[in-house]
Amino acid sequence: MNYTGPKIVTPPPGPKARALIEKDLDMLSPSLTRTAPLVGVKAEGVYVEDLDGNVFLDFGSGIGVTGVGHRHPKVIDAVKKQLDALVFVNSLDYYTTPQVELAEMLFEATPGDFPKRVFYSNSGSESIDTAIKMAKWHSRRAYGVGFINGFHGRTVGAMSFTTTNLTARRGFAPLYPIGQFTPYPYCYRCLFNQTYPSCNLDCVNYLTDVIFKKLIAPDETAFILLEPVQGAGGYIVPPQEFFDRLTGFAKEHGILLIADEVQTGYGRTGKMFASQHFGFEPDIITMSKAFASGFPAAATVARKEVMDWVDNAHEGTLNGGPVIMEAAKAVLRVIEEERVLENVRVEGDYFRSQLDALQQRYPIIGDIRGMGLMIGMELVKDEKKTPAGEARNKLIADAFSKGLLLMGAGESSLRLIPPMTINRQEIDTGLSIMEDCLKQL
Ligand SMILES: Cc1ncc(COP(=O)(O)O)c(C=O)c1O
Fold this sequence. Notes:
Blueprint: H1 15-27, E1 40-44, E2 47-50, E3 55-58, H2 61-64, H3 73-83, H4 97-109, E4 116-121, H5 124-139, E5 143-147, H6 156-159, E6 179-182, H7 202-215, E7 221-226, H8 240-253, E8 256-260, E9 284-287, E10 298-303, H9 322-337, H10 340-361, E11 365-371, E12 374-379, H11 389-401, E13 404-405, E14 407-409, E15 413-416, H12 424-440
Parallel strand pairs: 3-13, 5-6, 5-7, 7-8, 8-9
Antiparallel strand pairs: 1-2, 2-3, 4-10, 9-10, 11-12, 12-15, 14-15
Helix pairs in contact: 3-9, 4-9, 10-12
The site of pyridoxal-5'-phosphate (PLP) has 15 residues, from helix 5.
């Protein structure tokens, strides 16, 4: 395919894409959120081609799924090789080599130098449900704590801890009724109208002094579930002290810490897992998205003594199929062999510096934040930081018409999350399209 840049041959969506979308909208579930009218048919590296032959530069990688780029040749080769050997053996009943080999690699890659176990599943939501069930089984405690603005998925367990917006929850009550919620340190929009550090982290104070003193007993609480950097909530990076306080409290009361690294994991922030930036060693860690670069897979890794449930307590027929396990192994090899983490750090810093410069020129950009190649850009209408959600959506639509795929997060933020293999020239191309669109706002 050899794409060299975005190319618009017919204003998207072109006639073929429009015809397909019309059928799709009539036949598929109306619950699917569609960011842009892209009908992808081919892809390679950082580019996606649509049904009408338009080529788009991908600054979203399917919310971070194609982390090492679309169809990385080493991942595709590993999958093809496994297809020729064995497609499926049910791992409920039997054993396969790739599951064990991948486990060894994952234990190396995840934070914490202690014995671990892994449970494989097929989506981020399932990895969260696994973590919730495991924490409850192990502790035999009633409650769990989550954070406002957290996104953990759509299965009933994961959804019960998803608080990004009401549409994820409305109509489904009663949800799994074990959760209590506390604000996340979203310092740009502090719910307590405070400024860090003079606030002394009132969001954590609320957890320790209100939730754990008035609502639920710490010794009846199984877990605290958090994203080390909030994703769908708007790419929000907490201060170090947040992790220190949570870890101290959890240790004191025997509460398990679950890090949801479904979006932040696998190198996205410049380390294999975002927790590692903060010296944070969760008891349970969940991962999916970039895990197998587009093949549906997830894992929940836990301290060995925490994953102590018995035969039959938690299983899944399709979990950990050998083809997907080989894809996941290949992704880890690519990250190491191609020094992907270094690329994320260097190009992430560059990307961030260019966005900071854009912010100086366009006051609609209220905040730039993030880590590595997980960068959030929040748009605001005025100095009072009124969220500019419509402008954000227009920016996404305009960029699409010029051949750049962008994604939203939170009320008025963009999440800039290109493949981690992106190079300088590709970043510059995307930035110049973004600036063209900002001018039009
Ligand atoms: C942090 C986080 N956790 C969990 C999920 C759910 O993953 P999935 O959509 O694969 O079920 C997502 C999806 O966006 C996510 O960002």
